[in-house]
């Protein structure tokens, strides 16, 4: 299917291409997710580029390659956004998925499921109990997708300055076996 590995600095442009593709697709669906808010598209993409570059340099950005082509990406780290995850959630017991993107060409082939299973296995390997993520509040199709992948909806945080805030978690013991 594909091979998972750490993203390399040389992968930055391919990851940004995935982001732009996902951004256009989300916009075509009428969703505000990943659309610039209060800044130009150029400035927005510059900010995204900086975040992805930082994740690559810190070793938390991963890519899925198929025939040596980047077909998906995610960032997996211990960053529990304090606006979303409170101390009583025990944020230290989880790894967090950020910016998971599957190319439109690889969509519909369980690539996302395999990425999430891989991330859950990595969380278990690191001794974590949970795999967590936050999703765009109004992307209900994405919420249903995460539930189908074994996540439970924890709560939705509504902030005027953020579109994300639907919080999901999955016990890593619920992982199905990952195959690449």
UniProtKB/TrEMBL annotation:
Keyword field: Acyltransferase, Transferase
GO MF term set: acyltransferase activity, transferring groups other than amino-acyl groups
Taxonomy, superkingdom: Bacteria
4Fe-4S as UniProt keyword: no
Residue span(s) of domain N-acetyltransferase: 2-173
Keyword field contains Acyltransferase: yes
InterPro entries (UniProt xref): Acyl_CoA_acyltransferase, Bact_Acetyltransf, GNAT_dom
Record protein name field: N-acetyltransferase domain-containing protein
Organism whose genome encodes this protein: Catellatospora coxensis
Phylogenetic classification of the source organism: Bacteria, Bacillati, Actinomycetota, Actinomycetes, Micromonosporales
């Amino acid at each position: 299917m594909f091979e998972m590995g750490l993203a390399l600095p040389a992968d930055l442009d391919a990851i940004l291409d995935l982001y732009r593709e996902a951004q256009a697709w989300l916009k075509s669906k009428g969703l505000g997710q990943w659309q610039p808010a209060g800044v130009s598209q150029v400035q927005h993409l510059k900010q995204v580029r900086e975040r992805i570059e930082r994740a690559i340099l810190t070793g938390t950005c991963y890519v899925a390659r198929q025939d040596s082509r980047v077909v998906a990406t995610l960032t997996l780290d211990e960053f529990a956004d304090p606006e979303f995850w409170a101390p009583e959630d025990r944020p230290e017991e989880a790894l967090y998925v950020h910016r998971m993107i599957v190319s439109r060409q690889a969509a519909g082939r369980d690539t996302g499921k395999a990425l999430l299973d891989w991330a859950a296995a990595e969380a278990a390997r690191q001794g974590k109990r949970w795999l967590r993520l936050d999703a765009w509040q109004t992307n209900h199709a994405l919420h249903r997708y995460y539930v189908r992948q074994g996540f439970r909806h924890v709560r939705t945080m509504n902030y005027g300055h953020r579109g994300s805030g639907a919080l999901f978690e999955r016990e890593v013991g619920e992982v199905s076996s990952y195959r690449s």
